[in-house]
Write a structure and sequence with these properties.
Helix content of chain A: 10-25%
Number of strands of chain A: 8
Strand content of chain B: 25-35%
Structural class of chain B: alpha+beta
Number of helices of chain A: 3
Oligomer: heterodimer
Radius of gyration of chain B: 28 Å
Order of helices and strands of chain A: EHEEHEEEEHE
Strand order of the largest sheet of chain A: 2-3-1-4
Shape of chain B: globular
CATH superfamily of the largest domain in chain A: ACT domain
Structural class of chain A: alpha+beta
Distance between the termini of chain B: 71 Å
Shape of chain A: elongated
Number of domains of chain A: 2
Distance between the termini of chain A: 21 Å
Strand content of chain A: 25-35%
Number of helices of chain B: 13
Largest sheet of chain A: 4 strands, antiparallel
Radius of gyration of chain A: 17 Å
Largest interface: A-B, 20 and 31 residues
Protein backbone atom coordinates (compact mmCIF):
# COMPACT_ATOMS: atom_id res chain seq x y z
CA UNK A 1 0.00 0.00 0.00
CA UNK A 2 1.23 3.45 -0.89
CA UNK A 3 -0.30 6.56 0.59
CA UNK A 4 0.51 10.24 0.87
CA UNK A 5 0.52 11.89 4.27
CA UNK A 6 0.61 15.62 4.89
CA UNK A 7 2.52 16.54 8.05
CA UNK A 8 1.90 19.88 9.73
CA UNK A 9 4.56 21.05 12.14
CA UNK A 10 4.22 23.94 14.57
CA UNK A 11 5.80 25.14 17.80
CA UNK A 12 8.13 22.72 19.58
CA UNK A 13 7.77 19.99 16.99
CA UNK A 14 9.83 22.10 14.60
CA UNK A 15 13.00 21.72 16.65
CA UNK A 16 12.88 17.94 17.05
CA UNK A 17 14.15 15.29 14.62
CA UNK A 18 10.74 13.67 14.51
CA UNK A 19 10.97 12.37 10.96
CA UNK A 20 14.14 10.41 11.65
CA UNK A 21 12.64 9.03 14.85
CA UNK A 22 9.61 7.78 12.95
CA UNK A 23 11.78 6.26 10.23
CA UNK A 24 13.73 4.32 12.84
CA UNK A 25 10.57 2.93 14.40
CA UNK A 26 8.79 1.76 11.24
CA UNK A 27 9.46 -0.72 8.49
CA UNK A 28 7.50 1.41 6.02
CA UNK A 29 9.42 3.33 3.33
CA UNK A 30 9.09 7.09 3.62
CA UNK A 31 9.72 9.43 0.72
CA UNK A 32 9.66 13.23 1.08
CA UNK A 33 7.67 14.64 -1.86
CA UNK A 34 7.41 18.28 -0.89
CA UNK A 35 8.50 20.37 2.07
CA UNK A 36 8.00 23.96 3.15
CA UNK A 37 9.37 24.94 6.51
CA UNK A 38 10.11 28.28 8.12
CA UNK A 39 10.89 29.34 11.69
CA UNK A 40 7.29 29.13 12.87
CA UNK A 41 5.62 26.33 10.99
CA UNK A 42 6.22 23.67 8.42
CA UNK A 43 4.48 21.29 6.05
CA UNK A 44 5.98 18.11 4.69
CA UNK A 45 4.27 15.88 2.18
CA UNK A 46 5.49 12.30 2.42
CA UNK A 47 4.76 9.16 0.48
CA UNK A 48 4.60 6.08 2.71
CA UNK A 49 4.81 2.57 1.37
CA UNK A 50 4.14 -0.47 3.53
CA UNK A 51 1.38 -2.69 4.92
CA UNK A 52 -1.74 -0.79 6.11
CA UNK A 53 -0.99 -1.45 9.79
CA UNK A 54 2.47 0.04 9.37
CA UNK A 55 1.03 3.13 7.67
CA UNK A 56 -1.37 3.63 10.56
CA UNK A 57 1.59 3.30 12.91
CA UNK A 58 3.44 6.06 11.03
CA UNK A 59 0.44 8.37 11.42
CA UNK A 60 0.23 7.53 15.12
CA UNK A 61 3.95 8.08 15.70
CA UNK A 62 3.80 11.55 14.15
CA UNK A 63 0.71 12.49 16.13
CA UNK A 64 2.26 11.32 19.38
CA UNK A 65 5.20 13.63 18.65
CA UNK A 66 2.89 16.61 18.20
CA UNK A 67 2.80 16.63 14.39
CA UNK A 68 -0.57 16.75 12.69
CA UNK A 69 -0.64 13.87 10.16
CA UNK A 70 -3.38 13.68 7.55
CA UNK A 71 -3.76 10.84 5.04
CA UNK A 72 -4.46 12.24 1.61
CA UNK A 73 -6.49 10.44 -0.97
CA UNK A 74 -7.24 11.57 -4.51
CA UNK A 75 -5.06 14.67 -4.24
CA UNK A 76 -4.36 14.38 -7.93
CA UNK A 77 -7.12 13.44 -10.31
CA UNK A 78 -7.41 12.91 -14.03
CA UNK A 79 -10.95 13.63 -15.15
CA UNK A 80 -11.56 11.03 -17.85
CA UNK A 81 -14.66 12.89 -19.10
CA UNK A 82 -12.52 15.93 -19.88
CA UNK A 83 -9.31 14.16 -20.97
CA UNK A 84 -8.93 13.74 -24.76
CA UNK A 85 -6.15 11.14 -24.40
CA UNK A 86 -3.76 13.33 -26.35
CA UNK A 87 -0.74 12.41 -24.25
CA UNK A 88 0.79 15.91 -24.03
CA UNK A 89 1.41 15.23 -20.32
CA UNK A 90 3.13 11.85 -20.46
CA UNK A 91 6.64 12.88 -21.46
CA UNK A 92 6.69 15.61 -18.80
CA UNK A 93 5.93 13.26 -15.92
CA UNK A 94 9.20 12.52 -14.08
CA UNK A 95 7.95 9.31 -12.42
CA UNK A 96 5.87 7.64 -15.11
CA UNK A 97 2.67 8.27 -13.13
CA UNK A 98 1.07 9.37 -16.40
CA UNK A 99 1.26 6.84 -19.18
CA UNK A 100 -0.36 5.73 -22.41
CA UNK A 101 -2.16 2.40 -22.19
CA UNK A 102 -2.44 -0.39 -24.76
CA UNK A 103 -5.67 1.14 -26.08
CA UNK A 104 -4.00 4.59 -26.30
CA UNK A 105 -5.89 6.09 -23.40
CA UNK A 106 -3.96 8.18 -20.89
CA UNK A 107 -3.79 6.74 -17.39
CA UNK A 108 -2.80 8.31 -14.09
CA UNK A 109 -1.26 6.14 -11.38
CA UNK A 110 -1.75 8.16 -8.21
CA UNK A 111 0.71 6.05 -6.25
CA UNK A 112 3.57 7.04 -8.51
CA UNK A 113 2.67 10.75 -8.49
CA UNK A 114 4.96 13.03 -6.47
CA UNK A 115 2.73 16.08 -6.95
CA UNK A 116 5.29 18.09 -8.92
CA UNK A 117 2.36 19.50 -10.92
CA UNK A 118 4.33 19.89 -14.15
CA UNK A 119 1.46 18.22 -16.00
CA UNK A 120 -1.24 20.52 -14.66
CA UNK A 121 -0.67 23.57 -16.90
CA UNK A 122 0.54 21.35 -19.77
CA UNK A 123 -2.84 19.68 -20.13
CA UNK A 124 -4.58 21.44 -23.04
CA UNK A 125 -8.03 20.88 -21.54
CA UNK A 126 -7.22 21.16 -17.81
CA UNK A 127 -8.18 17.55 -17.08
CA UNK A 128 -5.55 17.09 -14.35
CA UNK A 129 -6.30 18.69 -11.01
CA UNK A 130 -4.27 18.78 -7.82
CA UNK A 131 -6.15 19.63 -4.66
CA UNK A 132 -3.81 20.42 -1.81
CA UNK A 133 -5.47 20.54 1.60
CA UNK B 1 -4.20 -5.82 -65.53
CA UNK B 2 -5.50 -4.86 -62.13
CA UNK B 3 -9.04 -4.16 -61.12
CA UNK B 4 -10.51 -0.66 -61.13
CA UNK B 5 -13.64 0.64 -59.47
CA UNK B 6 -15.63 3.86 -59.78
CA UNK B 7 -17.13 6.13 -57.15
CA UNK B 8 -20.59 5.24 -58.47
CA UNK B 9 -19.94 1.52 -58.09
CA UNK B 10 -18.83 2.02 -54.49
CA UNK B 11 -21.84 4.23 -53.70
CA UNK B 12 -24.13 1.59 -55.16
CA UNK B 13 -22.58 -0.96 -52.78
CA UNK B 14 -23.24 1.47 -49.91
CA UNK B 15 -26.88 1.70 -51.01
CA UNK B 16 -27.10 -2.09 -51.28
CA UNK B 17 -25.55 -2.50 -47.84
CA UNK B 18 -22.67 -4.68 -49.05
CA UNK B 19 -19.81 -2.18 -49.08
CA UNK B 20 -16.59 -3.37 -47.43
CA UNK B 21 -14.90 -0.73 -45.31
CA UNK B 22 -11.72 -1.06 -43.25
CA UNK B 23 -9.78 1.56 -41.30
CA UNK B 24 -6.36 2.78 -42.38
CA UNK B 25 -4.93 0.82 -39.49
CA UNK B 26 -6.70 -2.43 -40.41
CA UNK B 27 -5.66 -2.29 -44.05
CA UNK B 28 -1.97 -2.48 -43.11
CA UNK B 29 -2.41 -5.97 -41.67
CA UNK B 30 -4.83 -7.00 -44.40
CA UNK B 31 -2.40 -6.18 -47.23
CA UNK B 32 0.43 -7.90 -45.35
CA UNK B 33 -1.72 -11.02 -45.12
CA UNK B 34 -3.43 -11.15 -48.50
CA UNK B 35 -1.46 -8.89 -50.81
CA UNK B 36 -2.57 -5.78 -52.72
CA UNK B 37 -4.25 -7.61 -55.57
CA UNK B 38 -6.69 -9.46 -53.34
CA UNK B 39 -7.38 -6.48 -51.10
CA UNK B 40 -8.29 -4.21 -54.01
CA UNK B 41 -10.99 -6.72 -54.96
CA UNK B 42 -12.29 -7.16 -51.42
CA UNK B 43 -12.11 -3.67 -49.93
CA UNK B 44 -14.02 -0.65 -51.20
CA UNK B 45 -13.16 2.12 -48.76
CA UNK B 46 -10.40 2.85 -46.25
CA UNK B 47 -11.30 5.29 -43.49
CA UNK B 48 -8.79 7.58 -41.83
CA UNK B 49 -8.95 9.87 -38.83
CA UNK B 50 -6.99 12.47 -36.93
CA UNK B 51 -7.62 14.49 -33.78
CA UNK B 52 -5.13 17.21 -33.02
CA UNK B 53 -4.71 20.90 -32.27
CA UNK B 54 -5.28 22.74 -35.52
CA UNK B 55 -4.65 26.44 -34.98
CA UNK B 56 -5.78 27.44 -38.44
CA UNK B 57 -9.43 26.87 -37.59
CA UNK B 58 -12.40 29.09 -37.00
CA UNK B 59 -16.05 29.68 -37.75
CA UNK B 60 -18.09 32.14 -39.77
CA UNK B 61 -21.15 33.39 -37.94
CA UNK B 62 -24.05 35.53 -39.04
CA UNK B 63 -25.81 37.11 -36.06
CA UNK B 64 -28.82 38.60 -37.86
CA UNK B 65 -29.76 42.27 -37.51
CA UNK B 66 -30.57 44.11 -34.30
CA UNK B 67 -33.16 46.89 -34.23
CA UNK B 68 -32.08 49.57 -34.86
CA UNK B 69 -29.44 47.83 -36.94
CA UNK B 70 -25.68 47.98 -36.43
CA UNK B 71 -22.77 47.61 -38.83
CA UNK B 72 -20.39 45.90 -36.46
CA UNK B 73 -16.92 47.38 -36.51
CA UNK B 74 -15.64 45.24 -33.68
CA UNK B 75 -17.29 42.26 -32.05
CA UNK B 76 -16.44 40.09 -29.06
CA UNK B 77 -17.80 36.67 -28.08
CA UNK B 78 -17.19 35.93 -24.39
CA UNK B 79 -14.55 38.69 -24.54
CA UNK B 80 -12.75 37.04 -27.46
CA UNK B 81 -12.60 39.32 -30.47
CA UNK B 82 -13.94 38.01 -33.78
CA UNK B 83 -13.06 39.52 -37.15
CA UNK B 84 -15.91 41.53 -38.59
CA UNK B 85 -14.18 43.40 -41.40
CA UNK B 86 -16.83 42.03 -43.76
CA UNK B 87 -20.55 42.83 -43.98
CA UNK B 88 -22.58 44.30 -41.10
CA UNK B 89 -23.27 41.24 -38.94
CA UNK B 90 -20.91 38.58 -40.28
CA UNK B 91 -17.86 37.66 -38.24
CA UNK B 92 -15.11 35.06 -38.15
CA UNK B 93 -14.09 33.70 -34.78
CA UNK B 94 -10.57 32.32 -34.99
CA UNK B 95 -9.31 29.52 -32.72
CA UNK B 96 -6.18 31.30 -31.48
CA UNK B 97 -7.68 34.70 -30.59
CA UNK B 98 -7.25 35.19 -26.84
CA UNK B 99 -9.84 36.37 -24.35
CA UNK B 100 -9.29 39.99 -23.33
CA UNK B 101 -10.17 39.13 -19.74
CA UNK B 102 -8.90 35.55 -19.28
CA UNK B 103 -5.86 35.56 -21.56
CA UNK B 104 -4.62 32.13 -22.59
CA UNK B 105 -7.11 30.28 -20.39
CA UNK B 106 -9.88 30.96 -22.89
CA UNK B 107 -9.85 31.75 -26.59
CA UNK B 108 -11.62 31.41 -29.91
CA UNK B 109 -11.33 27.61 -29.80
CA UNK B 110 -13.22 27.58 -26.51
CA UNK B 111 -15.90 29.90 -27.93
CA UNK B 112 -16.44 27.44 -30.79
CA UNK B 113 -16.68 24.51 -28.36
CA UNK B 114 -19.13 26.44 -26.15
CA UNK B 115 -21.31 27.21 -29.18
CA UNK B 116 -21.31 23.53 -30.18
CA UNK B 117 -22.21 22.56 -26.61
CA UNK B 118 -25.25 24.82 -26.92
CA UNK B 119 -24.01 27.18 -24.22
CA UNK B 120 -24.93 30.85 -23.99
CA UNK B 121 -22.24 33.15 -25.39
CA UNK B 122 -22.05 36.87 -24.57
CA UNK B 123 -21.93 38.98 -27.72
CA UNK B 124 -20.74 42.59 -27.56
CA UNK B 125 -20.26 44.79 -30.61
CA UNK B 126 -19.31 48.39 -31.28
CA UNK B 127 -19.66 50.52 -34.42
CA UNK B 128 -19.14 54.05 -35.75
CA UNK B 129 -22.76 54.37 -36.92
CA UNK B 130 -24.00 55.17 -40.41
CA UNK B 131 -27.25 56.51 -41.87
CA UNK B 132 -28.38 53.00 -42.67
CA UNK B 133 -26.85 51.37 -39.57
CA UNK B 134 -27.23 54.02 -36.83
CA UNK B 135 -26.60 51.82 -33.80
CA UNK B 136 -23.21 52.10 -32.10
CA UNK B 137 -23.33 49.37 -29.51
CA UNK B 138 -25.11 46.11 -28.95
CA UNK B 139 -24.94 43.41 -26.30
CA UNK B 140 -26.74 40.09 -26.34
CA UNK B 141 -26.61 36.61 -24.96
CA UNK B 142 -26.79 34.14 -27.83
CA UNK B 143 -26.56 30.41 -28.54
CA UNK B 144 -25.74 28.58 -31.74
CA UNK B 145 -29.50 28.25 -32.35
CA UNK B 146 -29.87 32.05 -32.47
CA UNK B 147 -27.38 32.66 -35.27
CA UNK B 148 -28.38 32.27 -38.92
CA UNK B 149 -25.25 30.45 -40.06
CA UNK B 150 -22.45 28.93 -38.06
CA UNK B 151 -19.96 27.45 -40.48
CA UNK B 152 -16.71 25.87 -39.41
CA UNK B 153 -14.19 27.01 -42.02
CA UNK B 154 -10.62 26.00 -41.37
CA UNK B 155 -7.97 27.31 -43.76
CA UNK B 156 -5.39 24.68 -42.84
CA UNK B 157 -6.15 21.32 -41.27
CA UNK B 158 -4.99 17.72 -41.30
CA UNK B 159 -1.27 18.17 -42.00
CA UNK B 160 -0.17 15.04 -43.84
CA UNK B 161 2.54 14.63 -41.15
CA UNK B 162 4.27 17.02 -38.83
CA UNK B 163 7.75 17.62 -37.44
CA UNK B 164 8.68 16.04 -34.11
CA UNK B 165 10.09 18.50 -31.59
CA UNK B 166 12.84 18.54 -28.98
CA UNK B 167 14.86 21.26 -27.23
CA UNK B 168 18.65 21.67 -27.03
CA UNK B 169 18.51 24.64 -24.66
CA UNK B 170 19.30 24.33 -20.97
CA UNK B 171 15.89 25.72 -20.06
CA UNK B 172 12.31 24.51 -20.53
CA UNK B 173 10.61 26.14 -23.50
CA UNK B 174 6.91 26.51 -24.19
CA UNK B 175 6.03 26.08 -27.84
CA UNK B 176 3.12 25.23 -30.07
CA UNK B 177 4.60 21.73 -29.90
CA UNK B 178 3.94 21.75 -26.16
CA UNK B 179 6.31 21.96 -23.23
CA UNK B 180 9.83 20.95 -24.23
CA UNK B 181 12.14 20.00 -21.37
CA UNK B 182 15.76 21.21 -21.24
CA UNK B 183 18.74 19.35 -22.76
CA UNK B 184 16.65 17.19 -25.10
CA UNK B 185 14.59 16.01 -22.11
CA UNK B 186 11.58 14.92 -24.15
CA UNK B 187 10.14 14.72 -27.65
CA UNK B 188 6.69 15.74 -28.80
CA UNK B 189 4.98 15.01 -32.08
CA UNK B 190 1.69 15.53 -33.80
CA UNK B 191 -0.31 13.71 -36.44
CA UNK B 192 -2.12 10.40 -36.60
CA UNK B 193 0.61 8.42 -38.39
CA UNK B 194 -0.94 5.23 -39.77
CA UNK B 195 -4.40 6.88 -39.66
CA UNK B 196 -3.28 10.25 -41.10
CA UNK B 197 -5.85 11.16 -43.78
CA UNK B 198 -3.52 12.87 -46.24
CA UNK B 199 -0.72 10.39 -45.74
CA UNK B 200 -2.97 7.58 -46.85
CA UNK B 201 -3.43 9.18 -50.25
CA UNK B 202 -0.17 11.12 -50.53
CA UNK B 203 -0.41 11.48 -54.30
CA UNK B 204 -3.88 13.04 -54.06
CA UNK B 205 -5.42 10.45 -56.36
CA UNK B 206 -8.78 10.65 -54.59
CA UNK B 207 -8.67 13.67 -52.25
CA UNK B 208 -9.72 16.97 -53.76
CA UNK B 209 -12.10 19.90 -53.79
CA UNK B 210 -15.56 18.62 -52.90
CA UNK B 211 -14.45 15.45 -51.10
CA UNK B 212 -16.99 14.67 -48.41
CA UNK B 213 -15.34 14.10 -45.04
CA UNK B 214 -15.94 13.59 -41.33
CA UNK B 215 -15.52 17.01 -39.72
CA UNK B 216 -16.15 17.69 -36.06
CA UNK B 217 -18.63 14.82 -35.81
CA UNK B 218 -20.67 15.85 -38.86
CA UNK B 219 -20.32 15.58 -42.63
CA UNK B 220 -18.16 18.34 -44.06
CA UNK B 221 -16.24 19.02 -47.25
CA UNK B 222 -12.80 19.83 -48.52
CA UNK B 223 -13.09 23.35 -49.92
CA UNK B 224 -9.60 23.85 -51.32
CA UNK B 225 -5.96 23.04 -50.76
CA UNK B 226 -4.96 24.19 -47.29
CA UNK B 227 -2.74 27.21 -46.75
CA UNK B 228 0.95 26.22 -46.77
CA UNK B 229 -0.06 23.08 -48.74
CA UNK B 230 3.34 21.57 -49.48
CA UNK B 231 2.81 18.19 -51.14
CA UNK B 232 6.34 18.02 -52.56
CA UNK B 233 7.66 17.71 -49.02
CA UNK B 234 4.85 15.36 -47.85
CA UNK B 235 3.40 18.30 -45.91
CA UNK B 236 0.05 18.58 -47.68
CA UNK B 237 -2.86 20.35 -45.98
CA UNK B 238 -6.55 20.93 -46.69
CA UNK B 239 -9.04 23.75 -46.23
CA UNK B 240 -12.27 22.33 -44.87
CA UNK B 241 -15.81 23.53 -44.32
CA UNK B 242 -18.88 22.21 -42.56
CA UNK B 243 -22.02 23.13 -40.64
CA UNK B 244 -21.06 23.88 -37.03
CA UNK B 245 -24.69 23.46 -35.99
CA UNK B 246 -24.48 19.76 -36.83
CA UNK B 247 -21.18 19.16 -35.05
CA UNK B 248 -20.42 17.44 -31.77
CA UNK B 249 -18.24 18.89 -29.02
CA UNK B 250 -16.60 15.51 -28.57
CA UNK B 251 -14.75 16.22 -31.82
CA UNK B 252 -14.15 19.97 -31.41
CA UNK B 253 -12.33 20.93 -28.25
CA UNK B 254 -11.01 24.36 -27.29
CA UNK B 255 -7.58 24.06 -25.71
CA UNK B 256 -4.72 25.96 -24.15
CA UNK B 257 -1.17 25.20 -25.19
CA UNK B 258 0.73 26.27 -22.07
CA UNK B 259 2.33 29.72 -22.45
CA UNK B 260 1.75 29.61 -26.20
CA UNK B 261 -1.91 30.34 -26.66
CA UNK B 262 -5.26 28.79 -27.44
CA UNK B 263 -6.24 26.50 -30.26
CA UNK B 264 -8.89 24.02 -31.34
CA UNK B 265 -8.62 20.23 -31.39
CA UNK B 266 -10.39 19.17 -34.57
CA UNK B 267 -11.61 15.67 -35.32
CA UNK B 268 -11.35 14.95 -39.04
CA UNK B 269 -11.53 11.83 -41.15
CA UNK B 270 -11.38 11.19 -44.89
CA UNK B 271 -12.70 8.11 -46.69
CA UNK B 272 -10.34 6.82 -49.34
CA UNK B 273 -12.05 4.89 -52.11
CA UNK B 274 -10.04 1.88 -53.21
CA UNK B 275 -10.26 2.53 -56.93
CA UNK B 276 -7.15 0.59 -57.94
CA UNK B 277 -4.02 -1.17 -56.70
CA UNK B 278 -1.94 1.99 -56.56
CA UNK B 279 -4.33 3.46 -54.04
CA UNK B 280 -4.22 0.31 -51.90
CA UNK B 281 -0.44 0.50 -51.80
CA UNK B 282 -0.30 4.02 -50.36
CA UNK B 283 -3.28 3.46 -48.07
CA UNK B 284 -1.51 0.45 -46.58
CA UNK B 285 1.60 2.39 -45.48
CA UNK B 286 2.56 1.40 -41.95
CA UNK B 287 3.99 3.60 -39.23
CA UNK B 288 7.53 2.37 -39.80
CA UNK B 289 7.22 3.64 -43.39
CA UNK B 290 5.92 7.08 -42.38
CA UNK B 291 8.88 9.29 -41.65
CA UNK B 292 9.18 12.76 -40.27
CA UNK B 293 12.06 14.86 -38.98
CA UNK B 294 13.13 15.49 -35.42
CA UNK B 295 13.65 19.22 -35.07
CA UNK B 296 15.43 21.30 -32.44
CA UNK B 297 12.87 23.89 -31.36
CA UNK B 298 15.53 25.35 -29.04
CA UNK B 299 16.65 27.40 -32.04
CA UNK B 300 13.89 29.98 -32.63
CA UNK B 301 14.57 30.51 -36.33
CA UNK B 302 12.52 29.79 -39.42
CA UNK B 303 14.93 27.04 -40.41
CA UNK B 304 15.40 25.06 -37.24
CA UNK B 305 18.13 22.41 -37.13
CA UNK B 306 17.09 18.90 -38.18
CA UNK B 307 18.53 16.34 -35.78
CA UNK B 308 17.55 13.26 -37.78
CA UNK B 309 14.76 11.41 -39.56
CA UNK B 310 12.37 9.58 -37.29
CA UNK B 311 9.46 7.23 -38.03
CA UNK B 312 5.99 7.42 -36.50
CA UNK B 313 6.59 3.86 -35.27
CA UNK B 314 9.49 5.05 -33.12
CA UNK B 315 7.54 8.08 -31.90
CA UNK B 316 4.53 5.91 -31.09
CA UNK B 317 6.69 3.52 -29.01
CA UNK B 318 6.80 6.12 -26.23
CA UNK B 319 10.55 6.62 -26.29
CA UNK B 320 12.90 8.10 -28.84
CA UNK B 321 16.65 8.28 -29.03
CA UNK B 322 18.07 11.78 -28.99
CA UNK B 323 21.85 12.25 -28.92
CA UNK B 324 22.40 8.71 -27.71
CA UNK B 325 19.88 8.87 -24.89
CA UNK B 326 16.35 7.43 -24.68
CA UNK B 327 13.84 10.14 -23.83
CA UNK B 328 10.06 10.01 -23.30
CA UNK B 329 7.75 11.03 -26.13
CA UNK B 330 4.40 12.83 -25.98
CA UNK B 331 1.98 12.62 -28.86
CA UNK B 332 0.04 15.87 -28.92
CA UNK B 333 -2.76 14.48 -31.04
CA UNK B 334 -4.92 11.72 -29.64
CA UNK B 335 -4.47 8.40 -31.40
CA UNK B 336 -7.39 7.00 -29.42
CA UNK B 337 -9.69 9.68 -30.83
CA UNK B 338 -8.22 9.27 -34.34
CA UNK B 339 -9.13 5.58 -34.12
CA UNK B 340 -12.61 6.44 -32.90
CA UNK B 341 -13.10 8.81 -35.85
CA UNK B 342 -11.89 6.31 -38.45
CA UNK B 343 -14.19 3.75 -36.80
CA UNK B 344 -17.16 6.07 -36.77
CA UNK B 345 -16.70 7.02 -40.41
CA UNK B 346 -16.52 3.29 -41.21
CA UNK B 347 -19.83 2.73 -39.38
CA UNK B 348 -21.48 5.64 -41.21
CA UNK B 349 -20.48 4.22 -44.60
CA UNK B 350 -21.45 0.66 -43.71
CA UNK B 351 -24.77 1.93 -42.37
CA UNK B 352 -25.56 3.84 -45.55
CA UNK B 353 -25.42 7.23 -43.84
CA UNK B 354 -22.36 8.49 -45.69
CA UNK B 355 -21.72 8.39 -49.44
CA UNK B 356 -18.46 9.10 -51.21
CA UNK B 357 -18.19 12.17 -53.38
CA UNK B 358 -15.99 12.30 -56.43
CA UNK B 359 -13.78 15.41 -56.17
CA UNK B 360 -14.49 18.28 -58.55
CA UNK B 361 -10.77 19.01 -58.78
CA UNK B 362 -7.84 17.10 -57.31
CA UNK B 363 -5.48 18.98 -55.03
CA UNK B 364 -2.24 20.31 -56.50
CA UNK B 365 0.74 17.98 -56.12
CA UNK B 366 3.51 20.37 -57.00
CA UNK B 367 3.15 23.48 -54.84
CA UNK B 368 5.81 24.54 -52.37
CA UNK B 369 5.65 26.61 -49.19
CA UNK B 370 7.63 29.80 -49.61
CA UNK B 371 9.15 31.86 -46.81
CA UNK B 372 7.92 35.41 -46.17
CA UNK B 373 9.23 38.08 -48.48
CA UNK B 374 10.88 40.37 -45.99
CA UNK B 375 11.56 44.03 -46.77
CA UNK B 376 14.83 44.02 -44.89
CA UNK B 377 17.06 41.36 -43.44
CA UNK B 378 16.76 41.22 -39.68
CA UNK B 379 19.83 42.67 -38.01
CA UNK B 380 22.02 40.15 -36.23
CA UNK B 381 23.43 40.46 -32.74
CA UNK B 382 26.93 41.07 -34.13
CA UNK B 383 25.67 44.11 -36.08
CA UNK B 384 24.33 45.79 -32.97
CA UNK B 385 26.51 44.65 -30.08
CA UNK B 386 29.12 46.74 -28.32
CA UNK B 387 32.53 45.39 -29.28
CA UNK B 388 35.02 44.49 -28.16
CA UNK B 389 33.66 43.76 -24.70
CA UNK B 390 35.71 44.84 -21.72
CA UNK B 391 36.49 41.58 -19.92
CA UNK B 392 38.37 40.57 -16.80
CA UNK B 393 40.09 37.47 -15.42
CA UNK B 394 38.68 35.50 -12.48
CA UNK B 395 41.72 36.33 -10.31
CA UNK B 396 41.35 40.10 -10.89
CA UNK B 397 40.56 42.17 -7.81
CA UNK B 398 37.14 43.54 -7.01
CA UNK B 399 38.09 47.22 -6.41
CA UNK B 400 39.97 47.42 -9.72
CA UNK B 401 36.97 46.01 -11.58
CA UNK B 402 34.61 48.43 -9.85
CA UNK B 403 36.79 51.34 -10.92
CA UNK B 404 36.94 50.05 -14.51
CA UNK B 405 33.16 49.78 -14.85
CA UNK B 406 32.60 53.17 -13.24
CA UNK B 407 35.09 54.87 -15.60
CA UNK B 408 33.69 53.26 -18.73
CA UNK B 409 30.05 53.56 -17.58
CA UNK B 410 29.51 49.83 -18.18
CA UNK B 411 27.34 47.54 -16.10
CA UNK B 412 28.41 44.09 -17.32
CA UNK B 413 31.83 42.55 -16.99
CA UNK B 414 32.25 39.10 -18.57
CA UNK B 415 34.90 37.01 -16.83
CA UNK B 416 37.03 35.01 -19.26
CA UNK B 417 39.92 32.55 -19.22
CA UNK B 418 43.25 33.14 -20.97
CA UNK B 419 41.80 32.21 -24.36
CA UNK B 420 38.88 34.56 -23.95
CA UNK B 421 36.29 31.82 -23.18
CA UNK B 422 33.39 32.87 -20.99
CA UNK B 423 33.56 31.70 -17.36
CA UNK B 424 31.04 33.98 -15.69
CA UNK B 425 29.75 37.51 -15.36
CA UNK B 426 29.97 40.29 -12.78
CA UNK B 427 27.59 43.23 -12.87
CA UNK B 428 28.05 46.66 -11.33
CA UNK B 429 25.41 45.63 -8.80
CA UNK B 430 27.45 42.54 -7.78
CA UNK B 431 30.46 44.83 -7.31
CA UNK B 432 28.53 47.36 -5.22
CA UNK B 433 27.30 44.58 -2.95
CA UNK B 434 30.77 42.96 -2.71
CA UNK B 435 32.66 46.13 -1.73
CA UNK B 436 33.19 46.03 1.99
CA UNK B 437 32.43 42.32 2.42
CA UNK B 438 36.06 41.30 2.54
CA UNK B 439 35.79 39.35 -0.71
CA UNK B 440 38.72 40.06 -2.98
CA UNK B 441 38.65 38.21 -6.27
CA UNK B 442 36.06 38.43 -9.04
CA UNK B 443 35.83 34.61 -9.08
CA UNK B 444 34.28 34.82 -5.61
CA UNK B 445 31.35 36.93 -6.76
CA UNK B 446 30.80 36.07 -10.42
CA UNK B 447 27.61 34.43 -11.64
CA UNK B 448 28.63 31.21 -13.37
CA UNK B 449 25.34 30.39 -15.07
CA UNK B 450 25.32 33.15 -17.65
CA UNK B 451 22.52 33.84 -20.11
CA UNK B 452 24.28 34.32 -23.43
CA UNK B 453 23.48 34.93 -27.08
CA UNK B 454 25.39 33.87 -30.19
CA UNK B 455 26.79 36.55 -32.50
CA UNK B 456 24.89 35.35 -35.55
CA UNK B 457 21.46 35.18 -33.90
CA UNK B 458 18.85 37.82 -34.79
CA UNK B 459 18.58 40.79 -32.42
CA UNK B 460 14.98 39.77 -31.64
CA UNK B 461 16.28 36.69 -29.87
CA UNK B 462 18.56 38.81 -27.67
CA UNK B 463 15.62 41.12 -26.90
CA UNK B 464 13.42 38.16 -25.92
CA UNK B 465 16.13 36.78 -23.59
CA UNK B 466 16.65 40.16 -21.90
CA UNK B 467 12.92 40.45 -21.31
CA UNK B 468 12.40 36.85 -20.19
CA UNK B 469 15.22 36.87 -17.66
CA UNK B 470 14.68 40.49 -16.63
CA UNK B 471 18.29 41.44 -17.26
CA UNK B 472 19.90 44.34 -19.09
CA UNK B 473 22.84 42.80 -20.91
CA UNK B 474 24.03 39.56 -22.52
CA UNK B 475 27.57 38.47 -23.39
CA UNK B 476 27.84 37.60 -27.07
CA UNK B 477 29.85 34.49 -27.84
CA UNK B 478 31.08 32.65 -30.92
CA UNK B 479 30.97 28.91 -31.53
CA UNK B 480 34.01 28.39 -29.24
CA UNK B 481 32.36 30.31 -26.38
CA UNK B 482 34.86 33.15 -26.83
CA UNK B 483 33.34 36.49 -25.82
CA UNK B 484 32.98 38.76 -28.85
CA UNK B 485 31.00 41.60 -27.35
CA UNK B 486 28.09 42.62 -25.14
CA UNK B 487 24.54 43.40 -26.21
CA UNK B 488 22.51 45.54 -23.85
CA UNK B 489 18.95 46.83 -23.80
CA UNK B 490 20.57 50.19 -24.65
CA UNK B 491 22.03 48.80 -27.89
CA UNK B 492 18.60 47.49 -28.87
CA UNK B 493 16.89 50.79 -28.03
CA UNK B 494 19.37 52.60 -30.28
CA UNK B 495 18.56 50.16 -33.09
CA UNK B 496 14.84 50.83 -32.75
CA UNK B 497 15.63 54.55 -32.74
CA UNK B 498 17.45 54.14 -36.04
CA UNK B 499 14.59 52.09 -37.50
CA UNK B 500 12.08 54.80 -36.60
CA UNK B 501 14.17 57.43 -38.35
Amino acid sequence: MNIKILLKYAGEALDKPILSEVIRKTSADINILHAEIDSRKGEILIGVEGPPAEIDKVVKLFEESGVEAEKLEHVVTLDSDVCMDCGACVSLCPTGALSIEEDYSVKLDEDKCILCEVCVPACPVRAIKVKRP
Amino acid sequence: MGISKSYEEINQKIRDGDVVVVTAEEIVELVREKGEEKVVKEVDVVTTGTFGAMCSSGAWLNFGHSDPPIKMQRVWLNDVEAYTGVAAVDAYIGATQLSETQGMEYGGGHVIEDFVRGKEVELRATAYGTDCYPRREVEASITIHDVNQAVLCNPRNAYQRYMAATNSRNETIYTYMGTLLPNYGNVTFSGAGVLSPLHKDPNYETIGVGTRIFLGGAQGYIAWEGTQHNPTKALGTIMVIGDLKEMNSRYLRGCTINRYGTSLYVGLGIPIPILNEKIVRTAAASEDQIKTQLIDYGVPRRDRPVLRDITYAELRSGNAEVNGKEVPVSPLSSFKMAREIAGKLKKWIEGGEFFLSSPVELLPRDTVFKPMKQAAEVPLVKDVMTKPAITAAPEDRIPGAAKLLAERAFNHLPIVDKRGKLLGIVTSWDLAVALGTGKRKLSEIMTKKVIIVAEDEPVDIAARKLEQHNISGLPVIDADKVVKGIITSGDISKLIGRRLK
